[in-house]
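[Meeting: bench + compute handoff]

Bench side (C.D.) handed over the final construct sequence. Compute side (W.E.) agreed to return the predicted structure before the next meeting so the bench team could plan truncations. Sequence as handed over:
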Amino acid sequence: MSSPGSGRGPAVRQGLGLADLERENALLVGIIEAISAGPELTLLAARVAPLIAAATNTDVCFVHVLDDSGRSLTLAGATPPFDKQVGQVRLPLGEGVAGWAASRGEPVVLVEHKERDPRYRYFPQLRGEDYTSMVSVPMSSKPSGLVGVLNVHTRNRRDFTDRDIRLLTSIGSLLAGAVHQARLHRRLTTRERAHERFTEQVIAAQETERRRLAADIHDGITQRLVSLRFHLDAAAGALTDSSEFAGAQLARARELAEGTFDDARAAINGLRPPVLDDLGLADSLTSLARSLDALDVMVDVEDCPLPEHAEIALYRIAQEALQNVVKHARTRAAHLRLRREEGEVRLQVSDDGRGFDRDGMSFGDDPASGGYGMISMAERAEIIGGRLEVTSRPGLGTTITARVPIR
């Protein structure tokens, strides 16, 4: 009668052992393919568990991985139906058979009556009562150290040989490097996500402060300017024809009030352009270019998939770059371009103006090399994981390019 899950009888199982060359070669190829599939730890463990069970002619395989604290093991991969328990089973280092093997760095073999072994710990969800014999070997190598434990179980009693243990130990060593790299990748991904969340919070805080300042200017300064214009108009209407000097002064005061009012409105729009709330990045850039009376901007933009905080940062870079053209380039012609190319979004603002002595990649943070505006743009690009490039030569214009990778 064949044992469940294997398709082979006990005699066949005993005769083949773990050293069958064909199964070992298939296992090696399978592990290499699993490692090559990607650095995701749970995916790697899920792929190798059934490979190990098939190659070692055992019924189930559990892959326990040491957590980042180095104090406990977590089930990261298992053969069905126990794959549903992945992430749910945790074992402190030193407890249970797997914990003992990990803490001592030695394999453990239990042929039968494992429940009598003081190291054994029962997990109802893993149904240990259904399996008789087991082997637990550490997954470790010199470069990576201990990364976890491999457990294999058989329903029928099995006398595991020294060669069996060597094979499982070799498998553990082979996997140790891959698991170590997967753990490093997971940590890096976690840090990147944390950095992105922090970036979102920083930009959100900046935009909130800009909105507050815009509201303060609108509700305070502009309202007072409107009131001032009203009183100036009233004063001008009350003057007699003989008050020529006073009339001229009132007219000049009104001009100043009008100019200040226009400056306040421009500051409000600069602090928080309404288009950012209503349009996508491409349309917002188009609106920005059209709002600059001092420039004739050729616009070449397309919709690009970016998080909101990255869109805000790119809009601010374009805003600053176009203002620099107005202030310094001594030209009316500019070109604004937004494109997705080769896994990144590129924002480019160029002009044919007077330029300056700057030709290179990866704009630095030296204040003497471009002033606060350039530094501000570079910082905005860096905070969203991108970079700013500035190319310029005297008499040949300036090109500013912000590159942001698409995640």
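W.E. noted at the follow-up: The two ends are 54 Å apart (CA to CA). C.D. will use this when planning the next construct.
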